[in-house]
Amino acid sequence: MARPQTFTVEVGQSVIIPCDVDNPTGRNKLIIKKQPAGGGSEKLLSVGSEKVTPDPRIDIKGSRLTISHTRPRDAGTFLCHFDLEPPVQLRHTLDVQFAPTVQALVPPEQHVPKGNSVTLECKAHGNPEPIIRWSHQEGPLPSGYHTSQGPRLTLEKVDRRAEGTYLCTADNGIGEPASAAMAITVEYPPEVVAEKKIVTTGEGDEVDLVCIVHGRPPPDVVWTRDGRPLPDTLMDTQLHQPRTHTAHDAHMTQNHVAHRHTLSIKPVTEKDFGAYVCIAENTHGRKNAVIQMTGLPKPPEITSSPNGGESTSYTLTLQTESYYPLTEFIIKYRKTHTGAWHKNHTMVMAGSWEKVSKIVESEVTRQGSSYSLKYRLENLEVATDYMAVVRVRNKYGWSAESERFSFFTKRAMAVLQSTSASGCEETAAALLPLLLLPLIAAVM
Questions:
Q1: How many helices (H) and strands (E) does the chain have?
Q2: Is the pLDDT reported for residue 233 higher than 60?
Q3: Is the pLDDT of residue 173 over 50?
């Protein structure tokens, strides 16, 4: 009396399989059998009102079979059968849905050389068929996307940004999603950057020379000064393990926290000045960075406005740093090529360098190790472009030159001349641009 049906339940629920007949008390007994969903031999569950299967979750009442707390293995085809000639048979299908499980098909951690490719793979099981998505715990995937779909994830030409933990997450809408984690460690040669390439200091001061070091495996780091190794400075380079080590010379200590390697010198003596090199080495290569520790002044920075306020002079202002008092400065300046033409049709070309060298007196003001200097250049030409560079000196020597600085003197006002015919011609030539200005402005 029942019709074929498909029953869909979630795992743990109960289901009733109906085998209703119109003459349940007749001579022929109702037989209920099951064909497993994954294939295999039939299983006899009941004959008439007698249950044959030992499974306690299955109950027979009349011509109906009840399954409690369904499991995935309960899925399959249920046959309501009368052993007649020909047989009388009804087929029901049971689909048991369950939350996904996921399994990684690659090692939980892989070490990959920089520039190589690597494929991550996982397998999911669930009903309905789960969807697999990949994510990177440390941020977006190397592709720039936040997720990628499919059982495999290929990372091309990896660098250290590809490091981290990748999650393969399977979801089919039943229960909670399932995830498997796989870690990628990218091995690469050392990368070294000096926090400051030039450190200006002086006797009695305390300084830190800092190198930022990356690499996999973690590089060993040593320091040299002027090409000679500093004694006993090889460090334990386990990442994230703070270490402090005292070199053979007791006023030098090396500290290492994560990627930051510091050589501390206190107090500084004159013999400590020189070129320090932090050298990082691992199985993939060797790299270094140079830090110059010096008592020389820093190269000056010219701070005055390029637009000079005077016609034949210019006041140059600059700043610099020096641990020791400044003793002297040099200003070099010259006219620059402007591309203009004289009345005799000759182009204005760059002039030769003029030099002002002066012992420091009242031109300099000091605040700590910072110095400000002001100097007035005289006898300049009217309405002319100039270029200047500056160097300063302390007891250890001269600084490097400042960057080239361009400035110009003020344009002179036109003066009317009327004492001669030639003077009138010159006056008219001078007034013509002034008379044309309002007309040009009106057109624009």
A1: 1, 34
A2: no
A3: yes
Decide: helix, strand or coil at residue 427: helix
Over residues 372-384, the mean pLDDT reads: 93
CA angle in degrees (0–180, nearest 5) for 137-138-144? 100
Q: How far apart are CA 326 and CA 320, in angstroms?
A: 10
**pLDDT for residue 40:** 81
3-state SS assignment for residue 82:
strand
Contact between residue 388 and residue 316 where contact means Cβ atoms under 8 Å apart: yes
3-state secondary structure of 419: coil
CB-count exposure of residue 21 (10 Å: 0-12, 13-18, 19+)? middle
Predicted confidence at residue 152, as pLDDT, reads 95
425 φ/ψ angles, rounded to the nearest 5 degrees: -65, -40
- The count of C-alpha atoms lying within 13 angstroms of the C-alpha of 86, restricted to the half-sphere facing its C-beta, is 1
DSSP category for residue 305: -
pLDDT of residue 421: 45
How many other CB atoms are there within 10 angstroms of residue 350's CB atom?
A: 13
The percent of residues in the chain predicted with pLDDT above 90, rounded, is 63
Give the C-alpha separation, 161 to 209, whole Å.
Answer: 27
| Whether 354 contacts 332, CB under 8 Å | yes
For the chain, give the number of residues: 444
Strands (E), 378-431: 385-394, 397-398, 405-408
- As beta bridge partners, residue 109 has 183
Buried b vs exposed e over 176-214: b needs ≥16 C-beta within 10 Å? ebbbbebebebbbbbbbebeeeebbbbeebebebbbebb
Q: How far apart are the first and last CA of the chain?
A: 98
Residues 266 and 242: their CA atoms lie apart, in Å, by: 20
Residue type, 288: N
Residue 257 β-bridge partners:
260
Q: How many whole angstroms separate alpha carbon 209 and alpha carbon 277?
A: 10
**Residue that has been written with the tokens 């569950």 in this structure:** 45
